[in-house]
Input
Amino acid sequence: MPIRIAHAVDQAPHAGAKRLFVKSYGCQMNVYDGIRLADLMKPQGYALVEEAAGADLIVLNTCHIREKADDKLFSDLGRYKRLAPQAILAVGGCTGQALGAQIFQQQPAVKIVFGPQTIQRLPALLSKALRGERAIDTDFPELEKFDALPTPGAYGASAFVTIQEGCDKFCTYCVVPYTRGAEISRPADDILAEVQALAAQGVKDVTLLGQNVNAYEHAGVGLAELCRVVGDVPGIARVRFTTSHPNNTTPELIAAFAPPAQGGNPKLMPYFHLPVQAGSDSVLARMNRNHTVQSYLDIIAAVRAVRPDVAISGDFIVGFPGETEEEFQQTLALAAHVGYVGAYSFAYSPRPGTPAADLPDQLDEITKKNRLAALQAVLDASTAAACATFVGQVLDVLVEGPAKEANQLRGRSPHNLAVNFSYGAADPAALVGQLVQVQITTSTPRSLVGSLSV
Ligand code: 5AD
Ligand code: SF4
Output
């Protein structure tokens, strides 16, 4: 699930501090890695800055999930090289892992290459680069990064915490098993310590991250129990998790969505991101998803049985090799049927080294583009309809900061929808980072609008 979050920057880098510019592409796990990378470089005298021009070190924390992400990296590299000719250019993240030393060949200005599992080794790589040598490290040392990185800094009231890395599912389109390696769950105690440190800095809302978090398991602790203990940390008001594969949705996890009176987890928000990818069993089989459309719908029905208002979100891929018009129509029908509150959809992008890239019947770009537009129209309508259902309700909103409109703040609803609201005579600065009640008066196609409820 791609999102864009600018890394919080140090407000006033002290004189003499070296300047670090980090750009994260792709998923939230990369955003989390980018934040930890900045935390790691702080004791090395690097302050995070907002502009690449003038930076001493530029780290591009890359995504390899679709071809477009790679293209963007190489165009950005050219731009940053011109903008900051003095800077050491480093490529980390999933493209660093996948392409390795090839990146030096494609863009000789790059001095450092590393992968998602070796960010903790950046200081050593940097020393080497400062000596004028090319530095590369694309190992997969299990969990070393979590042990080696400092306690995370908090940037606002919401935080991501990676609980699991890698993926063992091997969907035929996907590079993740190759870029992030095998599925490994972090010990619950380590995760708890991190959440406690974040809560002590004012974090109230935690999203537990992994490629397949519902398969989380460490020393007998599964995701449902982990959500419970994380929610019990003093100060934590909201827990979410993302992203999930349908097959690992346990009865315990479903039960955690129930109201507290029925034994559910009071901190677990009614939001479930459950990618399906396609609405046709034959496409799902070619994708090696190991589930059917019906088994996916059964899970949604089971979650709705305990929590009828749960917001379901998902991911779709259109134009998978061999996708017929009929198979695509089945995807459209599923997208219309589920009632998604939000969903992400992508045109299939063949990734070198994945099985689907070698399948016959690759679809042409125009067909993929047309199918994507048709699916997005259905999903947009679904999101708009879901937003409209909240009009008239009073919702708990975690305030993130000023909205674009004057005299308004923005925040998130329990269902993870963006809410913009007017705050009347209240002091806006005092509300940021707090949970407030907002009377929803109108909705837009993707968000809610209201006013502070007093
Ligand atoms: N092409 C297009 N979309 C992809 N995704 C993963 N691999 C590909 C690919 N090769 C999408 C899936 C996944 C999301 C993170 O990215 O929908 O859930
Ligand atoms: Fe992109 Fe996947 Fe890597 Fe996240 S894990 S950055 S989505 S390739």
The two ends are 35 Å apart (CA to CA).
